[in-house]
Write a sequence for this structure.
């Protein structure tokens, strides 16, 4: 498939997707599917499906992993690097100056409300994210739902009791596949 | 923070990042805020700023943490650490999953990462909100809590885009500062 898309096109496509991605990796994956599978037809639906699996299992933002995979598929390793840079650079170019600006301007007494505003945004959005995921868990069927709730509560308890967070995250990842015990015959 | 510690932290954040933004917040908090390299106050504002821009949340919060402890080199190391799993594990996992059909364990893992995301987002929210509330008096902390919960309800109930909440909150914050309330 190499050569159908120049490196510059890969970069621009990723940059566009990066700037349109708001609200997590799933949006990014949908946008990559639209560009590479639906619009340009460079990757088949089946090939794309094969990319989603590993991009969920590989740690890190899944949007970045899918950028890597689509870039690799269309232009080799160089394509993968360019595709990832396309996702990374625009948001970095926006966030770093914005952060410096917000940090400095909140030192001005009249703009001290910026500090509070940003903190409320941070806390509320994290809580909102938790709420949105919680709703998805509640939508699970039967045993999986209850097992998920118990599993999540155990993680929360470990964190609440002040256990080492790195250890809690590692334990959660190692035990994660065990949730499969409660899934009914997915093989069929 | 020494450069070696920063590299190790960047790799920890990268390789343990399962479950999305919430996990990233908690990991950055544990590795940068808890040891005292970044203050709680600054960190809460960093998280808020991250929600203002598009792109992968993990990269944005990681880059800000890197910037605070090591300037441009800090950003570079953090971005490299967070993208490292894509380069090192994607080829391997791709190979494994090419010949693997979905089974109960892979499905279980996928569902579990969602649960990890839920638990860690919730914990992240508590970390930040606790810091917001202890620095403003009793009355204000009640006002802020009610304000947050009302917005969450509105965003959920009316499917309102979070940009509305973020924009209005920033304006309200600045206005409160101007009249001397914040």
């Amino acid at each position: 498939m190499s050569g159908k898309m120049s490196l510059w096109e890969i970069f621009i496509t990723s940059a566009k997707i990066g700037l349109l991605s708001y609200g997590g990796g799933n949006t990014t994956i949908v946008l990559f599917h639209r560009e590479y599978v639906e619009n340009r037809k460079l990757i088949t639906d089946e090939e794309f499906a094969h990319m989603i699996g590993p991009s969920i299992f590989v740690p890190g933002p899944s949007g970045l992993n899918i950028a890597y995979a689509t870039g690799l598929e269309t232009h080799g390793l160089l394509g993968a690097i360019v595709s990832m840079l396309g996702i990374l650079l625009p948001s970095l170019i926006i966030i770093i100056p914005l952060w410096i600006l917000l940090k400095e301007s909140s030192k001005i007494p009249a703009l001290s409300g910026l500090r509070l505003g940003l903190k409320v945004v941070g806390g509320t959005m994290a809580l909102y994210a938790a709420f949105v995921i919680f709703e998805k868990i509640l939508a699970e069927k039967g045993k999986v739902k209850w097992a998920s709730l118990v599993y999540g509560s155990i993680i929360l308890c470990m964190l609440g009791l002040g256990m080492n967070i790195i250890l809690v995250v590692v334990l959660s990842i190692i035990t994660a596949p065990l949730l499969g015990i409660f899934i009914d015959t997915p093989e069929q | 923070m020494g450069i070696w510690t920063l590299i190790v932290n960047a790799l920890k954040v990268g390789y343990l990042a399962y479950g999305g933004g919430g996990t990233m917040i908690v990991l950055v908090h544990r590795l940068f805020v808890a040891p005292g390299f970044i203050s709680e106050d600054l960190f809460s504002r960093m998280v808020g700023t991250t929600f203002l821009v598009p792109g992968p949340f993990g990269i944005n919060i990681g880059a800000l943490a890197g910037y605070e402890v090591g300037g441009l080199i800090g950003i570079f190391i953090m971005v490299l650490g967070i993208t490292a799993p894509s380069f090192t594990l994607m080829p391997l996992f791709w190979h494994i999953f090419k010949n693997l059909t979905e089974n109960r364990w892979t499905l279980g893992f996928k569902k579990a990462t969602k649960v990890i995301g839920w638990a860690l987002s919730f914990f992240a929210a508590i970390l930040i909100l606790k810091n917001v509330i202890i620095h403003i008096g009793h009355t204000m902390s009640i006002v802020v809590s009610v304000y947050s919960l009302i917005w969450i309800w509105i965003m959920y109930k009316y499917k309102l885009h979070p940009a509305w909440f973020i924009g209005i909150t920033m304006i309200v914050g600045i206005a409160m500062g101007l009249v001397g309330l914040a």
Observations:
- Residues 10 and 133 of chain A are 32 Å apart (CA to CA).
- Helices of chain A lie at 7-20, 25-39, 45-57, 62-105, 113-138, 142-160, 165-175.
- The mean pLDDT of chain A is 88.
- Chain A touches chain B through 99 residues (CB under 8 Å).
